[in-house]
Amino acid sequence: MKKTVFALAALSLALPATSFAQDNNGRYGLPPGAHDEIAWDFVEGITTEIGPRLAGTVDEARAREWTMEWLRNHGFANVMNEPFPIQTWVRGEEQARIIAPFPQPVVVTALGYSGATSAQGIRAEIVHFATTDELRAAPEGSLAGKIAYIGHAMRATQDGSHYGYFGSARRQGPGIAAQKGAAGIIIRSIGTDDDRLPHTGATNWPEGVTPIPAAALSNPDADNLERMLARGETVAMELVLTPRHLGETMSGNVTAEIVGSDASLPPVLLACHLDSWDIGTGAIDDGAGCAIAATAALRVAEEGQPLRTIRVLFAGAEETGLWGSRAYSAAHADEPMGVGFESDFGAGLIWRLETNFSRTNPALFSRLAQAVAGYGVLPAPQIVASGGADLNILRDQQAPIVDLQQDGSRYFDLHHTANDTLDKVDPTELAQNVAVWTAVAGVLANEPGDIRGADIIVEE
Amino acid sequence: MKKTVFALAALSLALPATSFAQDNNGRYGLPPGAHDEIAWDFVEGITTEIGPRLAGTVDEARAREWTMEWLRNHGFANVMNEPFPIQTWVRGEEQARIIAPFPQPVVVTALGYSGATSAQGIRAEIVHFATTDELRAAPEGSLAGKIAYIGHAMRATQDGSHYGYFGSARRQGPGIAAQKGAAGIIIRSIGTDDDRLPHTGATNWPEGVTPIPAAALSNPDADNLERMLARGETVAMELVLTPRHLGETMSGNVTAEIVGSDASLPPVLLACHLDSWDIGTGAIDDGAGCAIAATAALRVAEEGQPLRTIRVLFAGAEETGLWGSRAYSAAHADEPMGVGFESDFGAGLIWRLETNFSRTNPALFSRLAQAVAGYGVLPAPQIVASGGADLNILRDQQAPIVDLQQDGSRYFDLHHTANDTLDKVDPTELAQNVAVWTAVAGVLANEPGDIRGADIIVEE
Ligand SMILES: [Zn+2]
Ligand SMILES: [Zn+2]
Ligand SMILES: [Zn+2]
Ligand SMILES: [Zn+2]
């Protein structure tokens, strides 16, 4: 991190207030050009000084060390790493070429836990499926020696809701293709951009299924492939993917605290994940989220010691299967959490407040809604928040959860690609995230009562 | 090409008129959603069925065969290839990594005619120059064993005028660095995007200078490198570039004609280049340009046989040094040209008409201005057109030249990158180009008099 980090932290006190006592100045509560120096310092630092930090690798370990130093430098207490083992997969060569009828190279990237080809690759006919369901309906054995291709194209949505449905091509598609005997599978990138930058991401192999080579094709290449397929001739591809399994290596969850004044109250957990895919630098996924979570904790502390402890959880090994989230929940099963929320959707403006306690604690929900009203945030009491990938511990404990929904309209242009770099983080939007988180965390960390509320039926 | 090409050509006659007798319907002379099926068929076909077509390679030869078949299928006469030899360079491996103080991979691509490293690459300290002039001012020998880096960042402009000035980093920078003893050179991509897709392009080695490894860094990587350099520590890079020289191979200029009724009149030459860089598919550079030139000739012919012959020139080996343009001028030095214009700047809307004969033939300039007035085109009689890269023959003959200036605001986002793909061509903007070219070519091909006009001084 920069040598000037203390000076920046001190300076930030003189900046536009991002405290939970918002002043409603400016549009959406922030003046034009608002900037949060601390949050920026984190995301600028980790992308510049660490960059890619794939789960279970030395890069992720360097990121943990870097982050723990940053947290200590910024005054966090109880900075620690809780290690856990994972099965680690690393990328190798990745090359693909249409070899017939129209030879030309195409751009692919291996999906996480993809099987490998030989160094010479495979050469096989491509069989086109419009959707994952179409692949599922293919006759058994019909794919023997062939490469399945799923072309289903996701759309950009503000809430990112298309990702779950369309993402089945990546998560389930390879397992289905393997079960039907395919030699490999190529999917259209789960992404909304038109760049020659394919989107990686983990795939799930069902129990007992041997992984096959599985890769994402960039959207322009998928368009091109589909134009070739539409001409009606047999299209064949050469595919080289040489990822490797490193076996068991260590990842870790980094945590740190702003210690509250009342140790009897369960903590407020602010979560993100520290690992990133190897092909980008983890700026929007999820450097920004960690910057938001950590800075919000510091901004609450600036207003005075909170009642409850605020703990930040920088989970390890999220991308390759939520290893850190599960490990953390298991290790802390006997430690009740007061409430948790997570940032893992870039740095777009927060536009909606959701909780899982609006019915059981409407008064608290109302106070949260008021705290963020000036930031352009819609209270959505009818939506039941379920939290993000790193909040297993909250779900396992059936504990209170808040979702501060970010605008993800452009998130899937960049998600899991080489294009996930610092220039994609808008400083003013990052500052709005910190301000909203600070407002919400400030209310919750100073809440003396049970956040879940009385278990009473509330008339609507 | 598609098997349906004849059907499309026939169908196109029923589409909105794009003839030189424009009807001024709709905004800018075209109805919303206007589409030119012939032009689209060319650019769709060559990107899908050929793709990259690097000068002097078998891919460029395949592109010539494909194009000649397309031209014959569309009714052109005298379809031919005029071969010429070039010195051919092909890309190899390209990998780069910051190795100190913050190890992480960065994305580079070799510049055309770059020297090679060994397969193991070079490891060297980076010396930062803000501009090419700064590099020029570096003391002799000061770069021995080091990698020069030029960070000068070009801006997007509508007329593309920044390219010439900022492009010196690519064209001259490597030669200067080599003369000062550098082990290699890295430049910020000559481009206006924020994608991890570096921009290639040819570099010029001065006589007697031994080429050194020379690569472009993507803009986000250049930003990252500069953040590292700004921290004040020595930054070192590992660079692997293994391009090769194939020696002399053959390229060729493809030409074809719409034969005019008066063989005594010098022809109208419509030019573009057929080769492309190897990392993209040559959609905007210059598949679109060839589509526009060829289709305009056909659209003029649809109105009846023109007076002058219209010849299309699909030049070979433009990207690697204007080999085709020079060869064509030399081979046809004794054949006077009537007028020439070229399309080699994407498919953005044409917004300005320029010629080099507005003073000597103001009446003809005025008729051209009227012919395109409805298409949202500004007549610029004060600008002296000098033509594009493939118009050497016009410049060498001091012949009439027209420039139909396209909007290039976003051209340098894509130029010479992997992102140069079909999805970047807007069909309606392509149709506007064809319409404007048809209007201008129609007037000129039916002009019985000398296009240059009487050599008289015109009062302004
Ligand atoms: Zn994430
Ligand atoms: Zn992710
Ligand atoms: Zn060009
Ligand atoms: Zn070019």
Automatic annotation (TrEMBL), chains A, B:
Gene Ontology cellular-component annotations: extracellular region; lysosome
SUPFAM superfamilies: Zn-dependent exopeptidases (SSF53187)
InterPro entries the UniProt entry points to: CPQ (IPR039866), Peptidase_M28 (IPR007484)
Location of this chain's protein in the cell: Endoplasmic reticulum; Golgi apparatus; Lysosome; Secreted
Gene Ontology molecular-function annotations: carboxypeptidase activity; metal ion binding; metallodipeptidase activity
GO biological process, one term: proteolysis
Keywords, comma-separated and alphabetical: Carboxypeptidase, Endoplasmic reticulum, Glycoprotein, Golgi apparatus, Hydrolase, Lysosome, Metal-binding, Metalloprotease, Protease, Secreted, Signal, Zinc, Zymogen
Record's signal peptide: 1-21
Residue ranges of domain Peptidase M28 in the record: 253-439
Subunit text: Homodimer. The monomeric form is inactive while the homodimer is active.
Protein name, UniProt field: Carboxypeptidase Q
Organism (species): Aurantiacibacter atlanticus
